[in-house]
Amino acid sequence: MNQKPDAIIIGAGLIGCATAYELTKRGYKTLNIDKLPAAGFGSTSNSCAIVRFHYSTLDGATMAYENYFYWKDWENYIGPVDERGYAKFVECGFVIFRNGDPSEQNFINLFEQIGIPYETWSLEALRERFPIGDLHSFWPPQPIDDETFWDEPTTPLTGGIYNPQGGYVNDPQLATYNLMQAAQRNGGEFLFNAEVVEVRKENGRVSGITLSDGTQIDAPVVVNAAGPHSFIINRLAGVEEGMKIKTNALRREVHHVASPKRFNFNQDGFVFSDADNGIYFRPETGNNILVGSADPECDPKEWVDNPDEYQTELTDELWKTQVYRLARRIPELEIPTKPSGIVSMYDASSDWIPVYDQSDLPGFYLAVGTSGNQFKNAAGVGHLMATLIDAVEKGQNHDEDHVQVKMPYTGVVLNAGFYSRLRELNTESSNTVMG
Length: 435
Ligand SMILES: Cc1cc2nc3c(=O)[nH]c(=O)nc-3n(C[C@H](O)[C@H](O)[C@H](O)COP(=O)(O)OP(=O)(O)OC[C@H]3O[C@@H](n4cnc5c(N)ncnc54)[C@H](O)[C@@H]3O)c2cc1C
Hints:
Helix 1 (about 15-25) links the parallel strand 1 and strand 2. It contains ten helices and 23 strands. The radius of gyration is 21 Å and the shape is globular. It has helices at about 15-25, 60-70, 75-80, 105-115, 125-130, 170-185, 230-235, 265-270, 315-330, 380-395; strands at about 5-10, 30-35, 50, 90, 95-100, 120, 160-165, 165-170, 190, 195-200, 205-210, 215-220, 220-225, 245-260, 270-275, 280-285, 290-295, 305, 340-350, 355-360, 365-370, 405, 415. By secondary structure, the chain is an alpha+beta fold. The protein folds into two domains: about 5-50 and about 170-245 and about 350-420, FAD/NAD(P)-binding domain (3-Layer(bba) Sandwich); about 90-170 and about 250-345, D-Amino Acid Oxidase, subunit A, domain 2 (D-Amino Acid Oxidase, Chain A, domain 2, 2-Layer Sandwich), CATH 3.30.9. Flavin-adenine dinucleotide binds near residues 11, 44 and 225.
């Protein structure tokens, strides 16, 4: 192992590996350190890995659309890999159920502005393509113990918005492994089963890290890409106080159920945004459906104080909440007696928009607060982080003169200041996982 890297990246999840790959392309000798045994074994491995473009902000939607092209070009972007092969982007299309909420027009305006292809579907068109759906509105979502929960809905949805380029990535852990291999090819190194317990400083600058076994590794640049542990690393570095936007770990469950047999969800299904009903859902291998929460206001948030000790079993309450909501949308759904799914955490920021930034400690950088919505963006985030780090290390004061990042596929220039830790809470944000 190189004992004097140019940059240490704490975390080898999707964001840490993408940042490593992009830094190595710019000539940095990187070292990713992760306390788990392999790349992408943290929250990334539980990601639904949905690729969609309807964000509430122009910058959010622009970044998401740029990353569609990374996924389309994945094999070329990554280069040669070993026998495990490449993660696959399944471009099955994305449907947003419409119930007349004003956010729908905002999404359409952003699609128009950016040039993201979309179609508006009538209720009839939606019914044709999703024949197993109950296309009534369930708004507002209710807790399952609310006495109105099973009330017969009476108001129809108004139709759908369809993005043909939406979809999902079939194997988030493999996508991370792909990025790790690409970084390694450029000389990037990885240290696993190693926990960072100290961020060291010297002369007012970061100077390296210390591991739990006492090993010290020095580097002029340290990047926090610790996912749901990001707030702990920020406290170790003493930079949390200087951030207007904070990050915290938020517990999440995603559940798996079989699709009704008469509809081949894998072949004919889409990824669905069903905020009307408090959920999102997508096809999963073996004619299954994967269902997660769209963060309706009525559901309590489960903040986690200690991400190393949290409830990792599925709970009956959340299982019923998400699967019963899905059963309202798909009345033929058979509800299994045994819950199945995953428990994981988001690294949620104060306004559900990430922090990609420098920090108050020179040399210490932040790739945090991914808020359950940055899987799709990882490669573009790696590009943004590496461009930002390189510019700041060469003397630019990003807090005063925001780094402008030209994105390689669409050619659009993103203002990295959008992700600043010093921003006011973004009032355009949905304040949900939608970003
Ligand atoms: C259930 C779920 C569903 C999601 N669905 C979607 C989706 O559909 N679409 C989308 O775009 N995004 C989605 N996301 C979000 C996306 O998956 C995350 O934003 C992304 O995977 C975060 O990657 P990361 O590298 O920041 O974090 P992680 O993958 O968690 O990596 C952080 C790493 O840091 C390591 N680490 C932490 N502390 C230390 C330490 N002290 N020392 C050493 N190592 C340390 C951890 O072991 C971990 O491996 C979802 C997330 C979850 C949890």
